[in-house]
Amino acid sequence: MKLIKYPSKNQWGELLRRPALKTENLFDTVRLIIDKVKAEGDKAVLEYEATFDKVNLSVLSVSEEEILAGESQISEQLKTAIILAKKNIELFHAAQQFVGKKIETMPGVTCWQKAVGIEKVGLYIPGGTAPLFSTVLMLAVPAKIAGCKEIVLCTPPAKDGSIHPAILFAARLAGVNKIFKAGGVQAIAAMAYGTESIPKVYKIFGPGNQYVTAAKQLVSLRDVAIDMPAGPSEVEVLADASANPVFVAADLLSQAEHGSDSQAVLVTTSEKLMEAVQIEVERQLMELPRKDIASQALENSKLILVKDMEEALDLTNEYAPEHLIIETENYQEVAERIINAGSVFLGSLSPESAGDYASGTNHTLPTNGYAKAYSGVSLDSFIRKITFQEITSEGMKTIGPAIEEMAANEQLDGHKNAVTVRLQMINKQ
Q1: Which terminus of the chain has fewer Cβ atoms in its 10 Å neighbourhood, N or C?
Q2: Among the options 236, 323, 352, 363, which is catalytic?
Q3: Domain co-membership, 174 together with 31
Q4: What percent of the residues of the chain are helix, what percent strand, and what percent coil, each to the nearest 5?
Q5: 93 labelled binding-site residue
Q6: Same domain? 70 vs 90
Q7: Is position 370 annotated in a ligand binding site?
Q8: According to the annotation, is 164 in a ligand binding site?
Q9: Is 343 annotated as a binding residue?
Q10: In the predicted model, what is the mean pLDDT of residues 126-155?
Q11: Are 225 and 200 spatial neighbours (Cβ–Cβ below 8 Å)?
Q12: Which H, E and C letters describe 168-201, residue by residue?
């Protein structure tokens, strides 16, 4: 990890740069795949599965027999853990349910909202080096609570054509309707446009590599909604001299093992802690099975020493991390001043991995600084709010003249007339 001591503010832009490849550079390649899937459907998806995932499939859908067989392959301990996580995610997201309230803005003018689940949603679950069955819960559980009628899941198969059994178990438990063996750009295109097997959906959720991100951005231009722009995973630990260097190092490495393009950052006011964390990172790294991946991520990662907590907070809010762990003596006070972050973990006993799996909060979060403008996935991500209004004759008499005046001044006489004819009828009664 790079050590940076007391950087000046004009260095922050370069210092906080993510290691992400610009997805625009991939658009031409990705567009070719999307267009082929759009034109040829299942045939194109099967061809791309052979090319990219190195698997020859005859069908894309996962059968009921495969789901049952997969479930029997995972341990009871893992099933219990997944069930516990699902319960907590369910409790947290159910508490976010919208309750519409009728508001009488003026006598006779009543307005309200109703929350309606998006009817068809698509979930993309990465496979690759780490099949993210936890992401199945994070997406399917709130989709089910929101009332989404069709929940479609795509995930890349292994070379033998199988899907990781924990993904299958989590999908059934969380209420996924259909599962398909499709990864990468071809899966995003299939859910965006529909094929003979894979239904077209109205919104696509889920993380992925740079190609998946580029595909989501392209299809969202006009054809389907997406959850958010997303890139490689990242974590920042904000710490002072009271932090435990063993915990800090473990938190940095837990993110670094996600992928070679992940980023881990320590921002601290303590030089002694920074030096201790550097030593501890090297020690713990050697014990990780995924140390090769983590080592590559650490090349993009930094230990940053700043002069005081004021500067640490300014730097943190400028970085806008996906995950922020605050390991300071007065972490509650520090947390109050955080305005840009995806998900925040308070105190030395709240590791980021708790949110990744089982505490109940959602781990699908904005990366690459998008936390300045985007929220993480929540129940709201799966619903639409429809507005309603009802106007009585009393209300029309009260509000009508104002509408007529405004419409006339915008030179929209048809708008004005829609009110005038009603007022004329009311006044005759």
Answers
A1: C
A2: 323
A3: yes
A4: 50, 15, 35
A5: no
A6: yes
A7: no
A8: no
A9: no
A10: 93
A11: no
A12: HHHHHHHCCCEEEECCHHHHHHHHHHCCCCCCCC
Active site residue 363: no
Show Cβ contacts of residue 45 under 8 Å, excluding neighbours closer than 6 positions. 37, 60, 182, 186, 187, 189, 190, 195, 198
At residue 336, what is the residue type?
E
Residue-wise pLDDT for 257-315, tens only, equals 988 889 999 999 999 999 999 999 999 999 999 999 999 999 989 999 999 999 999 99
Residue 388's contacts (CB-CB under 8 Å, 6 or more residues apart) are 111, 112, 113, 114
For position 272, which CATH number holds? 3.40.50.1980
Catalytic-labelled residue, pool 49, 257, 322, 327: 322
**Could you tell me if 244 and 209 lie in one domain?**
no
Contact 139, 377 (CB under 8 A): yes
Instruction: Write down the pLDDT at residue 261.
Output: 86
Residue-level pLDDT at 128: 64
Cβ contacts of residue 81 below 8 Å, gap of 6+? 357, 358
Rounded distance between C-alpha atoms, residue 264 and residue 215, angstroms:
26
Kindly tell me if the per-residue pLDDT of 155 is higher than 80: yes
Structure-token match 């894309």, residue found: 60
Mean pLDDT of 330-350: 98
Task: Give how far Cα 296 sits from Cα of 257, 275, 285, 293, Å.
Answer: 9, 20, 11, 5
Residue 276 lies in a domain: yes
Which residue matches tokens 């009110």? Answer: 419
The pLDDT assigned to 378 comes to: 97
Rounded distance, CA 385 to CA 387, Å? 7
User: Span 65-76, mean pLDDT?
Assistant: 93
User: Residue 106 has which token pair?
Assistant: 């003026």
* Cα 302 versus chain centre, distance: 24
Question: pLDDT per residue over 7-21, tens digit each?
Answer: 999 999 999 988 766
Q: How many angstroms separate the CA atoms of 107 and 266, rounded?
A: 57
Q: How many domains does the chain have?
A: 3
Domain residue limits at 42: 26-227
Measured distance CA(408)–CA(346) in Å, rounded:
55
Is residue 58 part of an annotated ligand binding site?
no
CA dist 244 and 254 (Å) reads 16
Q: Does the annotation mark 323 as catalytic?
A: yes
Tell me, yes or no, whether 9 lies in a domain.
no
DSSP for 252-284 reads HHHHHTT-TT-EEEEEES-HHHHHHHHHHHHHH
**Pair 222, 262 in one domain:** no
Let me know: does 133 contact 30? Beta carbons within 8 Å: no
pTM: 0.93
Position 20 scores a pLDDT of: 62
162 is in an annotated binding site: no
